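Need C-alpha coordinates for this chain, all 328 residues.
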Amino acid sequence: MKYDIQVLKNDDLPESVSDFLNYLETIRSKSPNTIDAYKIDLTLFFRFLCVYRGLVKNDIEFEDINISNIDNEFLKSIKLRDLYAFLSFVEKYRNNSSYARARKVATLKSFFKYLFGKAKIISDNPAMELESPKINKRHPVYLTLNQSIALLESLDKDDKNYARDYCILTFFLNCGMRLSELCGIQIEKIRGDILSIVGKGDKERTVYLNEACLRALNNYLSVRDDSKASYENKKYLFLSARNAPINKRTVEIMIKKHITNAGFTGEKYTPHKLRHTAATLMYKYGNVDIRSLQSILGHENISTTQIYTHVDDDDLRDAVKSNPLSKL
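Here are the C-alpha coordinates for all 328 residues:
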Protein backbone atom coordinates (compact mmCIF):
# COMPACT_ATOMS: atom_id res chain seq x y z
CA MET A 1 0.00 0.00 0.00
CA LYS A 2 1.33 3.41 -0.95
CA TYR A 3 1.12 6.35 1.42
CA ASP A 4 1.20 9.97 0.37
CA ILE A 5 3.75 11.19 2.89
CA GLN A 6 3.30 14.76 1.66
CA VAL A 7 -0.13 14.99 3.25
CA LEU A 8 1.51 14.46 6.63
CA LYS A 9 3.81 17.42 6.17
CA ASN A 10 3.29 21.14 6.63
CA ASP A 11 5.40 22.38 3.73
CA ASP A 12 4.86 26.02 4.64
CA LEU A 13 6.31 25.51 8.13
CA PRO A 14 9.83 24.96 9.41
CA GLU A 15 10.58 21.27 9.81
CA SER A 16 11.01 21.71 13.55
CA VAL A 17 7.51 23.18 13.88
CA SER A 18 5.95 20.38 11.80
CA ASP A 19 7.70 17.80 13.98
CA PHE A 20 6.51 19.59 17.11
CA LEU A 21 2.89 19.64 15.94
CA ASN A 22 3.06 15.94 15.07
CA TYR A 23 4.45 15.30 18.55
CA LEU A 24 1.53 17.17 20.11
CA GLU A 25 -0.94 15.10 18.11
CA THR A 26 0.56 11.62 18.31
CA ILE A 27 2.24 11.63 21.72
CA ARG A 28 0.48 14.33 23.74
CA SER A 29 -2.96 13.65 22.20
CA LYS A 30 -3.73 17.35 21.95
CA SER A 31 -7.01 18.34 20.31
CA PRO A 32 -7.09 19.68 16.72
CA ASN A 33 -8.10 23.10 18.05
CA THR A 34 -5.10 23.21 20.38
CA ILE A 35 -2.74 22.14 17.61
CA ASP A 36 -4.16 24.79 15.28
CA ALA A 37 -3.63 27.42 17.98
CA TYR A 38 0.02 26.38 18.40
CA LYS A 39 0.50 26.46 14.63
CA ILE A 40 -0.94 29.97 14.37
CA ASP A 41 1.18 31.24 17.27
CA LEU A 42 4.43 29.78 15.94
CA THR A 43 3.77 30.95 12.39
CA LEU A 44 3.23 34.47 13.69
CA PHE A 45 6.34 34.22 15.87
CA PHE A 46 8.68 33.17 13.07
CA ARG A 47 7.27 35.68 10.60
CA PHE A 48 7.87 38.37 13.21
CA LEU A 49 11.46 37.22 13.71
CA CYS A 50 12.09 37.40 9.98
CA VAL A 51 10.95 41.03 9.96
CA TYR A 52 12.64 41.84 13.28
CA ARG A 53 15.97 40.60 11.94
CA GLY A 54 15.60 42.34 8.59
CA LEU A 55 15.45 39.13 6.57
CA VAL A 56 12.54 40.12 4.31
CA LYS A 57 12.00 42.87 1.77
CA ASN A 58 9.78 45.79 2.71
CA ASP A 59 7.32 45.14 -0.13
CA ILE A 60 6.40 41.64 1.10
CA GLU A 61 3.11 41.33 2.98
CA PHE A 62 3.43 39.91 6.47
CA GLU A 63 1.13 36.97 5.67
CA ASP A 64 3.27 36.10 2.64
CA ILE A 65 6.54 35.75 4.53
CA ASN A 66 8.06 32.31 3.89
CA ILE A 67 9.26 30.63 7.08
CA SER A 68 9.75 27.11 5.74
CA ASN A 69 13.50 27.62 5.36
CA ILE A 70 14.13 28.35 9.02
CA ASP A 71 16.75 25.82 10.10
CA ASN A 72 18.38 24.59 13.29
CA GLU A 73 21.02 27.32 13.26
CA PHE A 74 18.27 29.93 13.25
CA LEU A 75 16.62 28.20 16.20
CA LYS A 76 19.90 28.13 18.12
CA SER A 77 20.28 31.89 17.64
CA ILE A 78 16.97 32.77 19.33
CA LYS A 79 17.38 34.53 22.67
CA LEU A 80 15.06 35.51 25.49
CA ARG A 81 15.03 39.12 24.27
CA ASP A 82 13.58 37.91 20.94
CA LEU A 83 10.68 36.34 22.79
CA TYR A 84 9.93 39.52 24.70
CA ALA A 85 10.21 41.55 21.49
CA PHE A 86 7.57 39.26 19.98
CA LEU A 87 5.24 39.74 22.94
CA SER A 88 5.68 43.49 22.66
CA PHE A 89 4.85 43.27 18.95
CA VAL A 90 1.59 41.36 19.43
CA GLU A 91 0.53 43.74 22.20
CA LYS A 92 1.24 46.97 20.31
CA TYR A 93 0.51 46.00 16.73
CA ARG A 94 -1.91 43.08 17.08
CA ASN A 95 -3.83 44.42 20.09
CA ASN A 96 -3.39 41.13 21.93
CA SER A 97 -4.90 41.09 25.40
CA SER A 98 -3.02 39.69 28.38
CA TYR A 99 -4.96 36.44 27.86
CA ALA A 100 -3.84 36.17 24.23
CA ARG A 101 -0.24 36.96 25.15
CA ALA A 102 -0.31 34.43 27.98
CA ARG A 103 -1.39 31.77 25.49
CA LYS A 104 1.50 32.69 23.22
CA VAL A 105 3.88 32.42 26.17
CA ALA A 106 2.54 28.92 26.82
CA THR A 107 3.07 28.04 23.15
CA LEU A 108 6.66 29.31 23.14
CA LYS A 109 7.50 27.55 26.39
CA SER A 110 6.10 24.27 25.11
CA PHE A 111 7.86 24.58 21.74
CA PHE A 112 11.30 25.42 23.11
CA LYS A 113 10.97 22.81 25.83
CA TYR A 114 10.40 20.29 23.04
CA LEU A 115 13.41 21.57 21.06
CA PHE A 116 15.58 21.37 24.16
CA GLY A 117 14.38 18.18 25.84
CA LYS A 118 12.95 16.01 23.07
CA ALA A 119 14.40 17.04 19.71
CA LYS A 120 17.78 17.98 21.23
CA ILE A 121 18.13 20.78 18.67
CA ILE A 122 19.10 23.54 21.10
CA SER A 123 21.50 23.39 24.04
CA ASP A 124 19.91 26.32 25.88
CA ASN A 125 16.19 26.96 26.33
CA PRO A 126 15.51 30.69 25.77
CA ALA A 127 11.95 30.34 27.08
CA MET A 128 13.04 28.90 30.42
CA GLU A 129 12.90 32.31 32.13
CA LEU A 130 10.11 33.74 29.97
CA GLU A 131 7.44 35.26 32.20
CA SER A 132 3.75 35.33 31.42
CA PRO A 133 1.81 38.62 31.60
CA LYS A 134 -0.26 39.23 34.68
CA ILE A 135 -3.86 38.29 34.08
CA ASN A 136 -6.75 39.77 35.99
CA LYS A 137 -9.20 36.97 36.64
CA ARG A 138 -12.56 37.48 34.98
CA HIS A 139 -15.77 35.89 36.12
CA PRO A 140 -17.31 33.72 33.40
CA VAL A 141 -20.32 35.16 31.59
CA TYR A 142 -23.38 33.03 32.21
CA LEU A 143 -27.17 33.03 32.20
CA THR A 144 -28.98 33.14 35.52
CA LEU A 145 -31.42 30.38 36.42
CA ASN A 146 -34.41 32.51 35.41
CA GLN A 147 -32.72 33.54 32.16
CA SER A 148 -31.99 29.89 31.35
CA ILE A 149 -35.63 28.97 31.88
CA ALA A 150 -36.75 31.95 29.80
CA LEU A 151 -34.42 30.90 26.97
CA LEU A 152 -35.87 27.39 26.81
CA GLU A 153 -39.44 28.69 27.02
CA SER A 154 -38.83 31.21 24.23
CA LEU A 155 -38.37 28.58 21.52
CA ASP A 156 -41.11 28.45 18.89
CA LYS A 157 -42.83 25.06 19.15
CA ASP A 158 -44.07 25.39 15.58
CA ASP A 159 -40.53 25.62 14.22
CA LYS A 160 -39.50 22.47 12.31
CA ASN A 161 -36.27 22.29 14.31
CA TYR A 162 -37.89 22.96 17.68
CA ALA A 163 -37.27 19.51 19.18
CA ARG A 164 -33.67 19.39 17.98
CA ASP A 165 -32.82 22.91 19.12
CA TYR A 166 -34.54 22.44 22.47
CA CYS A 167 -32.58 19.24 23.03
CA ILE A 168 -29.29 20.95 22.13
CA LEU A 169 -29.92 23.85 24.50
CA THR A 170 -31.01 21.47 27.25
CA PHE A 171 -27.83 19.44 26.88
CA PHE A 172 -25.68 22.56 27.03
CA LEU A 173 -27.47 24.03 30.04
CA ASN A 174 -27.63 20.79 32.03
CA CYS A 175 -24.46 18.91 31.11
CA GLY A 176 -21.99 21.70 30.42
CA MET A 177 -20.48 19.91 27.44
CA ARG A 178 -18.21 21.54 24.90
CA LEU A 179 -19.46 22.51 21.45
CA SER A 180 -17.27 19.90 19.73
CA GLU A 181 -18.50 17.25 22.17
CA LEU A 182 -22.14 18.01 21.42
CA CYS A 183 -21.65 17.93 17.64
CA GLY A 184 -19.91 14.57 17.91
CA ILE A 185 -22.57 12.74 19.97
CA GLN A 186 -23.41 9.34 18.47
CA ILE A 187 -26.70 7.60 19.23
CA GLU A 188 -25.03 4.27 19.98
CA LYS A 189 -23.07 5.98 22.76
CA ILE A 190 -26.27 6.66 24.72
CA ARG A 191 -27.18 3.95 27.23
CA GLY A 192 -30.09 4.98 29.42
CA ASP A 193 -28.97 8.06 31.32
CA ILE A 194 -25.30 7.51 30.45
CA LEU A 195 -23.69 9.23 27.48
CA SER A 196 -20.12 8.58 26.36
CA ILE A 197 -18.53 11.48 24.50
CA VAL A 198 -15.10 12.18 23.06
CA GLY A 199 -13.72 15.23 24.82
CA LYS A 200 -10.68 17.42 24.54
CA GLY A 201 -7.55 15.55 23.47
CA ASP A 202 -9.64 12.63 22.15
CA LYS A 203 -10.30 11.49 25.71
CA GLU A 204 -13.56 9.62 26.20
CA ARG A 205 -15.56 10.63 29.23
CA THR A 206 -18.99 9.90 30.68
CA VAL A 207 -21.83 12.40 30.88
CA TYR A 208 -24.90 11.65 32.98
CA LEU A 209 -28.24 12.80 31.58
CA ASN A 210 -30.78 14.16 34.06
CA GLU A 211 -34.56 14.00 33.64
CA ALA A 212 -34.74 17.21 31.63
CA CYS A 213 -32.13 15.89 29.19
CA LEU A 214 -33.87 12.53 28.83
CA ARG A 215 -37.25 14.16 28.16
CA ALA A 216 -35.74 16.49 25.56
CA LEU A 217 -33.81 13.60 24.01
CA ASN A 218 -36.82 11.30 23.74
CA ASN A 219 -38.94 14.11 22.29
CA TYR A 220 -36.29 14.82 19.66
CA LEU A 221 -35.79 11.15 18.78
CA SER A 222 -39.54 10.75 18.27
CA VAL A 223 -39.47 13.30 15.42
CA ARG A 224 -35.88 12.89 14.20
CA ASP A 225 -35.87 11.99 10.50
CA ASP A 226 -32.70 10.33 9.22
CA SER A 227 -34.32 8.62 6.23
CA LYS A 228 -32.25 10.67 3.78
CA ALA A 229 -29.03 10.53 5.75
CA SER A 230 -26.16 8.26 4.76
CA TYR A 231 -25.34 5.19 6.84
CA GLU A 232 -22.38 6.99 8.40
CA ASN A 233 -24.36 10.15 9.17
CA LYS A 234 -27.21 8.22 10.80
CA LYS A 235 -24.86 7.48 13.70
CA TYR A 236 -24.85 11.10 14.83
CA LEU A 237 -27.58 12.35 17.14
CA PHE A 238 -27.95 15.88 15.84
CA LEU A 239 -28.43 16.24 12.09
CA SER A 240 -28.51 19.37 9.96
CA ALA A 241 -31.02 20.27 7.25
CA ARG A 242 -28.67 18.55 4.80
CA ASN A 243 -28.85 15.28 6.76
CA ALA A 244 -25.23 15.61 7.84
CA PRO A 245 -23.88 15.74 11.39
CA ILE A 246 -24.58 19.24 12.65
CA ASN A 247 -21.44 21.37 12.58
CA LYS A 248 -20.16 23.86 15.11
CA ARG A 249 -20.96 26.93 13.05
CA THR A 250 -24.59 25.86 12.61
CA VAL A 251 -24.96 25.43 16.36
CA GLU A 252 -23.36 28.82 17.01
CA ILE A 253 -25.78 30.54 14.62
CA MET A 254 -28.73 28.67 16.09
CA ILE A 255 -27.84 29.64 19.66
CA LYS A 256 -27.32 33.27 18.72
CA LYS A 257 -30.77 33.30 17.09
CA HIS A 258 -32.52 31.86 20.14
CA ILE A 259 -30.58 34.07 22.55
CA THR A 260 -31.63 37.13 20.56
CA ASN A 261 -35.26 35.96 20.33
CA ALA A 262 -35.28 35.53 24.10
CA GLY A 263 -34.33 39.18 24.47
CA PHE A 264 -30.73 38.71 25.54
CA THR A 265 -27.62 40.13 23.91
CA GLY A 266 -26.81 37.88 20.96
CA GLU A 267 -23.12 38.76 20.83
CA LYS A 268 -22.59 38.05 24.51
CA TYR A 269 -23.76 34.47 24.80
CA THR A 270 -22.10 31.65 22.86
CA PRO A 271 -22.12 27.85 23.22
CA HIS A 272 -19.18 28.19 25.59
CA LYS A 273 -21.13 30.67 27.70
CA LEU A 274 -23.89 28.07 28.00
CA ARG A 275 -21.23 25.68 29.28
CA HIS A 276 -20.32 28.37 31.82
CA THR A 277 -23.99 28.58 32.74
CA ALA A 278 -24.30 24.86 33.41
CA ALA A 279 -21.18 24.84 35.56
CA THR A 280 -22.24 27.92 37.53
CA LEU A 281 -25.76 26.64 38.17
CA MET A 282 -24.49 23.22 39.24
CA TYR A 283 -22.02 24.79 41.64
CA LYS A 284 -24.50 27.34 43.00
CA TYR A 285 -27.66 25.24 43.30
CA GLY A 286 -26.52 21.62 43.15
CA ASN A 287 -24.12 21.50 46.09
CA VAL A 288 -21.46 20.16 43.72
CA ASP A 289 -17.92 20.19 45.08
CA ILE A 290 -15.10 21.51 42.93
CA ARG A 291 -13.60 18.06 42.24
CA SER A 292 -16.92 16.67 41.02
CA LEU A 293 -17.42 19.72 38.83
CA GLN A 294 -13.95 19.21 37.38
CA SER A 295 -14.91 15.66 36.39
CA ILE A 296 -18.27 16.72 34.96
CA LEU A 297 -16.67 19.39 32.78
CA GLY A 298 -13.75 17.22 31.71
CA HIS A 299 -11.11 19.68 32.91
CA GLU A 300 -7.57 18.36 33.06
CA ASN A 301 -6.52 20.91 35.69
CA ILE A 302 -8.65 21.94 38.64
CA SER A 303 -7.38 25.51 38.30
CA THR A 304 -9.55 25.77 35.17
CA THR A 305 -12.60 24.74 37.18
CA GLN A 306 -11.99 27.21 39.98
CA ILE A 307 -13.32 30.13 37.93
CA TYR A 308 -16.81 28.77 38.68
CA THR A 309 -16.43 29.27 42.41
CA HIS A 310 -17.22 32.96 41.97
CA VAL A 311 -20.07 34.51 43.94
CA ASP A 312 -22.54 36.63 42.00
CA ASP A 313 -23.54 40.17 42.92
CA ASP A 314 -26.80 39.11 44.59
CA ASP A 315 -24.94 36.79 46.93
CA LEU A 316 -22.49 39.55 47.81
CA ARG A 317 -25.34 41.98 48.44
CA ASP A 318 -27.16 39.45 50.64
CA ALA A 319 -23.97 38.72 52.55
CA VAL A 320 -23.52 42.40 53.40
CA LYS A 321 -27.18 42.76 54.37
CA SER A 322 -26.92 39.75 56.68
CA ASN A 323 -24.32 41.51 58.81
CA PRO A 324 -26.03 42.00 62.21
CA LEU A 325 -24.68 45.54 62.35
CA SER A 326 -26.67 46.47 59.24
CA LYS A 327 -29.78 47.03 61.38
CA LEU A 328 -28.16 49.63 63.63
